[in-house]
Amino acid sequence: MRGHSNTSCHCSCMVMQILFHTVQVLSQAEHRAGYCAFYEECGRNPSLEGALIPPINHRLIKHVPDMQVCPMLDKGLGSTFACCSIKQLTSLEMSLTLSKALLVRCPSCAENFAHLHCINTCSPNQSQTVKVTKVMNVTHLGKTREVVVEYQAYLATSFADGAFQSCQNVRIPATGGFAIATMCGRYGAKLCTPQRWYDFQGDTSNGLAPLDIDFRLIKPGEVEGVPEGVIPYKGRALKCNETTPSGGQVCSCQDCKESCPVLPPPPLPPGPFRLLGTDGFLVISIILFCLLIFSFLFFLLVSCLVKSQKKQDQEKKKKKGKDQNCNDVSQRVIHPAEVSCADRNSMAAQAFLSSVFQKWGTFMATYPLMVLLVSAVVVLGFGTGLMFIELTTDPVELWSAPNSRARQEKDFHDKHFGPFFRTNQLILTAPGRKGHIYDSLLFGTQNFSGLVSKDLVIEMLLLQKKIQNIEFWSEDLNRTASLKDVCFAPLNPNNSALTDCAVNSLPQYFQNSLDNINRVLGDIRLLFCAFSSSPLSFKDITDLGLSCMADYGAPVFPFLAVGGYRGDEYTNAEAFILTFSLNNYPRTNVKYNVALQWEKEFLKIVQDYQSNPTTNFTFAYMAERSLEDEINRTTAEDIPIFMISYAVIFVYIAVALGEYSSWRRILVDSKFLVGLGGILVVACSVLASMGFYSWIGIPSSLVILQVVPFLVLAVGADNIFIFVLEYQRDVRKPGEEREQQIGRVLGNVAPSMLLCSLSESVCFFLGALSTMPAVKTFALYAALAVLMDFVLQMTAFVALLSLDARRQDNNRCELLCCVTVATQKSNQPNEGFLLPLMRKYYAPVLLNRYMRFIVMLVFLFMFSASLYLMFNVTVGLDQELAMPKGSYMLDYFQYLYKYLEVGVPVYFVTKRGFNFTTEEGMNAVCSSVGCDQFSMIQKIQYAANHPEQSYIGISANSWVDDFIDWLNPGSRCCRLYSFGPNAGNFCPHILYSCSNCLSTVATVLTKSFLKVSCAGSFGSLLHFQNDIETASDVNMKMVPCLSRRVTNVFYEQYLTIVPEGLFNISLCLLPTFVVCCLLLGLDLRSGLLNLITIIMITVDTVGFMTLWGIHYNAVALINLVTAVGISVEFVSHMTRSFALSIKPTHVERAKEATANMGSAVFAGVAMTNLPGILVLAFAKAQLIQIFFFRLNLVITLLGMAHGLIFLPVVLSYFGKCKGGATRQCYKGYCVRRRPTTECETQTGSEN
C-alpha cells in the first residue's frame, strides 16, 4: 500500500512535467485555424532542472496516421491532422497514463482531463486557443534555439467547469480522500475551484511543471483580455454519469453523485411511545393505577355486602350452645371430612417436613463434635479446588458470550486479519493561551488558537521523542526492548525501525524533525498540510518542498492530530492528539508482556512529565492497559472497605443474637461464638462453591468475590436469626432433653428456611441459563453457595448451637469456658426487645382499618409509578463508572468526549456470498467504475450519507478498490517484464518497456485470492452507550457482512440486555412460586401473593434506579437477580407464618405473623444488610458506590417495606382463608370444636 499511495500522489504531480514537452514553434505566431503554436520536442528549461521546454518554430498542421491517444481529435484514417508528432503522442500517452492512476476510477473525468491536454498539445487549431507569452534561447545538442517558457491557454468556462465537476468527487480509496486534493496544490479539496485546479497544473512554483501556463477561463460573451484571433476552447466536457466515446462506463456513485440511484430516505428511528398526545407509558401507568384502585375498592364493597348479609343470616339461624360446664360457646363441632383436600395436603406437608427436620436436628445436636468434624472435612474437600481457581479479568470473557454475534465476529476478524492494535494516547491542551490572527495571501485571514504555536509543537515533539526512545530490559526477550519491538508498523511489519512505527501527531507533518520545524514558517505549513486538507501531499508550498506525510509513510489526517474544533476549522483546535499504536498480541505470546511493560514505562514517563511544573500543557492520557490496571487497583484498595462491612455485620450478629436477661449473665447469654460460627458457615459455603467450580474448570471473577458473599450472608443471617430467636423464645417441655428441644425448634423453622433457600438456589441455577458469561458464572456460584449454606446450617450450625446451649445451661462464660456464674437462667421464654415492641405497637398500628387502606393506596401508587419509571431507565454503563474517583482515566474520558472528533475504526468483513474469483463477486464488493450500485462499499457509502443514523464518520475503503485500480491497464501501475531473465515478474511502473498485467479490467482473477474481504472506516465519536449500541446495530444491518469495531463485544449486550433481564428474572420468579406452593401443600393463594410481592419489589427497584441515576446493565442485572433472592427472605417467611397461624381472623393472623416472624426477618435480613451496605458508601470505586451501595440499599429498603408493611396488609385482605385450627382437627382425625373463622363470615369487622 505504501508504494501504491506514493505512486498515486506522485503521478498527479508529474502530469505536467512529462506532458509539456519541447515543441518547435513558428517564428511569428498567428491565431488562425489550421496553424500550430507548438510542434515537436527539444530543449530543457534551464531554470528548472530536468524540465523539458518547446522551441519556437511556426508551421502548418501535419497529418497524423494514428490518434488513439486523443480520440476526440480522430477524424478517421487519412483525415486526421494535429499539431503534434508521433513522438509527442507517445510522450503524451505516458503522461496521461500517470494521471489515470488517480482518475481512472471515473472514465469521464479521465477523458476530460486528457481532452484538455490533447487540445493544448495536438489540436489542429492550436494557435487559436494558446498564446506564447515568454521565450528564451536554449542550447540543446549543440544547437541554440528560441524556446517557449510561458504561454496562456484560453478555455471557455463551460468546458472548464464541466471537466472540474466530473473530477471533483473522485476518491482515493486508500486514503478516503479526494483525488482533487492532490491535484489542487495548496488549496486541497475543500477550497479547490476550476481556476485553482488549472493554475496548479501550470505553476512552476510547485517544482513539477516544466513551464508556466496561464490558464484563462473565459465566460460566455466575455471579450476583454482575449487577444485578437484567439477563440477560447469550448468543447463539451463529459458528465461523470455519462459513458465515454471510447467505451468507458459511467462513474460509480462513490465518485459521482449524479450516478447514485434515487433511494428513499431511511426510515426514521421509532419515536417515543405516545397515547392521547402524551407519554404512552405514563398513560398506561395512570390507567393501571386507576384500575387497581377501582378493583380494590370494588373488593371492599363486595366484602362489606357479603359480610352484612352473612351477619343477618347468622343472627336468624344462630343457636346458643352449652358446653359440659353450661358455659355459652360459639363453637361448632366439625368432622375431619369437612377439611378440604388443599388443607389436608398443606398440613400433611408441614407435618412431614417438621417431623423429618425434628429428627434430623435432634441427631445433629446429639453428636455436635462429630458433625462439625465431618462438615469441616467436606468443606476442605471442596475448598482444595481453589488451587485450580482461574480469575477472569478480561472484559471480553466476562461480558461477551462465546456464541454471541459480536464475539463470533471478533474471533473471525482476529483469525483472518489479527486483533485491533493497542492504543496509547495523550490529549494535550494549553488553556489560557492567547490566539493569533495569520493573514495568508493564499488562504486569507485565519484565526489560530493559542494552542497552535511553534513553541508548543516543539515541546510536544520533545515529549514524543522521549516516549519513542523508551528502552527497558525484557525478561521475556532476554534483551533490551524498545518501541520497535512491539509497535504497529503497517508498512514494514517484519523488520521495523523506530521510524516505521505508527505514531500519529501534529509534528508528523514535519516528519518529527526539529530542524524542519525551525526552518519552516509553521503557520503556512500547517495550513497546507493539515488545515487545508492536504495531508497527502508529497511536496508542500514552502521553499523546502517537504512532504506532509508521516515519517512511517502514511498520511496523518487532521482529525487524528488535533481536536476540539468545529466543522473543519482545524486552526481553532483546542487539543493536540498524540497516539502510539502497538500490536495487540495474544495473551499467550511472549510479546504481550513486552507490550505491557512498554506501556508501563510509557505511563511512568507521562506521569513524570505531568508532575513537572515547567510543562506548558494540561493533558490527559491513557494506555491500553489502563482500564484493567485501574479496576484492579481500586479492587485492591476497596478490599478493606468490604472487610469492614463484613466486620460490622459480624459485630451486629454477635450482639443481636444475645439474650441479655441480666447483667450478671451477659457473658453467659451472649452469642459471640454463635455469631462467629454463622459467619464461618457463610464463608465456608462460599469457599465450597468456589472450590467445586474450580475443580470442574468454571472460572471465577471479581464480581463473584464481591457479590456472592454478600448475598449468602443476607440469606444465612436471616436463617440464623430465625432459628436462634425461635430457640430463645421457646420453653423446654418437662422431661425434654436439650437436644430434643433443639430438634423440635428446628422442626418448626427449618421448613421455612428450606422454602427460602430452595427457592433462591433453584432461582440462581435457572439464572445460569443466561448467555452472558458474568451473569452465568455468578448464578452458578450463588446457587451452590446458597445450597451449601443451607446444608451447613442444618448440620454445622445446629451442632454449634447445641454446644453453645450446653455451655449456657452450665452457666459458663463465653470465651472463658472455665468461668461460671451463680445466677441461673430464667425458665421464662426470652422474647427480647423487638418482639414485644412489634406485637404491642407496630402490628396493631399497621393493621388498623384505616392504615391498611392507606398502605394499599401508597404501595399501589408506588408500583404504578415505578412501572412508568422502569420504561425510562437508562440502558448502558459509562466506562468511567468503572474507575475510582481521582483516577487519571476519568480525566482522559472527559478529554476524549470533549476534544476527539472521531471514534474507533470500523471494519466490514465479508464471510461468505462473495466469490472473488469471478467478476460478479468483485463487483459486489467494490465501488469503482463498473461495480454494482448496491455493492457492499456502496451500501456503506449510502449509510455514511446519513451519519445521524449510521454514525459512520468517513467513507469506507476496500482493498478490492485499491487492487482493481492497481490492476487497471489504464493506470499502468501493475507491470510485468515482457522478456529477459525477469520475464513474467513485476517491474517498476516507471519502466515503460514493460507490459500491463492485464489487458482489460474484466479479466477474471486467479483463484489464489482470499475468500474474505475487509473494508474500513472511522465511526463518529459517541458519548453514550445507547448511541453506540444503535450505531452497532445500524452498521450490522446496512451491509451483507459483519461489522467489526473493538467496542462491539462490550456494547452488544445492550441490544439484548432488556429481554435477557426479563428472561433471567422470570426464571428466578418461577421457582419462588412453585416451591412456595409445594412446601405449603399446594397452597396456590399463598404462592401467588408471595410471587406478586416479589414482582412489586423488583419493579419498584428498577423504578428507583431511574430516580437515583443507576443505569441498567449487566452489573445491575446481577444485582436484580440478587434482589429476587433477598426478596424471598423478606416475603416467604412471612407468608408461611401467616398460612400456618391458628388465629381466627385474617387480621389477627397477620398480626401474629408480623410480630413473630417479622421481628426475626427485620433483625436477620434488614438490620444485617443495612450496616454492611452503609459502609460501602465509603468505597473509592464508583462502580461499588452505585451498584453495591446505592442499588443494594434500595433493594434492602424496598424488600423491608414490602415484607414488613405491604405483605401483612395484603395477607389481611387476601390471605388464605382457613387457619391452623383445621390442621389440629386434621392431624388427629377426630371431631373437634373450633371458633367460627373469618372465612366463614367473610372479612369480619377488622377487614
From TrEMBL:
Q: Name one GO molecular function term.
A: cholesterol binding
Q: Which GO terms describe its cellular component?
A: endomembrane system; plasma membrane
- The signal sequence is 1-28
Recorded hits in InterPro entries, A to Z, give: HMGCR/SNAP/NPC1-like_SSD, NPC1_MLD, NPC1_N, SSD
Q: Which GO terms describe its biological process?
A: cholesterol homeostasis; cholesterol transport; intestinal cholesterol absorption; lipid metabolic process
Q: Does the keyword Glycoprotein apply?
A: yes
- What is the membrane topology noted in the UniProt record heading this document? Multi-pass membrane protein
Q: Which PROSITE patterns match?
A: SSD (PS50156)
The reaction(s) annotated as catalysed by this protein in its Swiss-Prot or TrEMBL entry are: cholesterol(in) = cholesterol(out)
Report the protein name in the record.
NPC1 like intracellular cholesterol transporter 1
Record localization: Endomembrane system
Q: Which UniProt keywords apply?
A: Disulfide bond, Glycoprotein, Lipid metabolism, Membrane, Signal, Transmembrane, Transmembrane helix, Transport
The scientific name of the source species is Hippocampus comes
Tell me which residues make up the SSD domain. Answer: 638-803
- Annotated transmembrane regions: 281-306, 367-389, 639-660, 672-696, 702-725, 745-772, 778-803, 850-871, 1061-1081, 1088-1108, 1114-1132, 1153-1179, 1191-1214
What family does the Swiss-Prot or TrEMBL record give for this protein?
Belongs to the patched family.
Pfam (any one)? NPC1_MLD
